[in-house]
Amino acid sequence: MLLTLFVIAIVLLAAIGVYCIIATHSMIRVLIALELIVKAVTLLIAAAGTVNGQMALAQSYIIALIIIEVVVTAVGAGITIAAHAKNGTVDLRDLTKIKG
C-alpha cells in the first residue's frame, strides 16, 4: 500500500516537472520543474532502497543526488541572472538572440 503511494507520488511529480519544462518559456519555471523531477528521482531511490533492504546505499545515492542538484541549480540560477542582466527578461526564447 505504501509502495503504491510512493509510485503515484513519483509519477505525479515527474509528470508535472516534464509538463512544466515543455509548457513554459521562463527560465525560473524550468529550474523549478527540474527540482520537481529531481525530487521524483529522490523518492524513487528511497523507495527502491526500502524495497531492496539497502537503505544505507540508497541514502548515499540520495546525498550525492542532492549535491549534484544544488550545483545544477546554482549554475542555472547564475545563467538566469546573467540572461536577465543582458536582456532584461528571463524568457528562453530570447536566449537565441545572444551573440558572443
Keywords:
100 residues, mainly alpha, Helix Hairpins, 3 helices, elongated
Plain-language structure description:
The protein has 100 residues and is an all-alpha fold. The chain has a single domain, classed as Orthogonal Bundle (Helix Hairpins). It has three helices and no strands. The longest helix is centred in the C-terminal third of the chain and has 33 residues. The chain is elongated, with a radius of gyration of 17 Å. The protein starts with a helix and ends in a 13-residue tail after the last helix. The mean pLDDT is 93.
Instruction: Report the CATH C-level class.
Output: Mainly Alpha
Terminal CA distance reads 55 Å
Strand fraction equals under 5%
Low-confidence stretches: none
Q: How many structural domains can be distinguished in the coordinates?
A: 1
CATH fold naming: Helix Hairpins
Helix fraction? over 70%
Tell me which oligomeric state these chains represent: single chain
Report mean pLDDT, rounded to a whole number.
93
How many distinct beta strands?
0
Sheet having the most strands: none
Name the helix and strand elements from N-terminus to C-terminus, one letter apiece: HHH
Structural class of the secondary elements? mainly alpha
Q: How large is the count of helical segments?
A: 3
CATH architecture: Orthogonal Bundle
The shape is elongated
Taking Cα atoms only, what radius of gyration do you get, to the nearest Å?
A: 17 Å
